[in-house]
Amino acid sequence: TLEDSRIIELFYERSEQAILELSRKYGSICGRVKYYTITDKGREQLVFLKAEWQSYRDTINGIIEGRIKH
Question: pTM score, two decimals?
Fold first, then answer.
């Protein structure tokens, strides 16, 4: 089995192997846990929503700081 530090690295790499290794090592302890992966379409939506929220944030900050007059 892999060391915990390597399993954590796999999660940061977003590797599905991380889930398998975690299950192998701690499956009896963890019980039933649901894991989800994001699809390519989901990643595209995430990029879109982040940009949208950054635009809202910038507008609100501009109003608060007086850079944007309402």
Answer: 0.44
pLDDT in tens, 13-62: 988 888 888 888 887 776 666 667 889 999 999 999 999 999 999 999 99
Using alpha carbons, select from 62, 42, 38, 39 the residue that is nearest to residue 50. 42
Instruction: For residues 30 and 1, give the distance between their C-alpha atoms in angstroms, rounded to a whole number.
Output: 16
Q: Residue 37 half-sphere exposure, CB side, CA atoms within 13 Å? A: 11
Instruction: Tell me, letter by letter, the H, E, C secondary structure of 34-57.
Output: CCCCCCHHHHHHHHHHHHHHHHHH
- CA 40 to CA 26: how far, in whole Å? 29
Number of helices and strands (H, E) in the chain? 3, 0
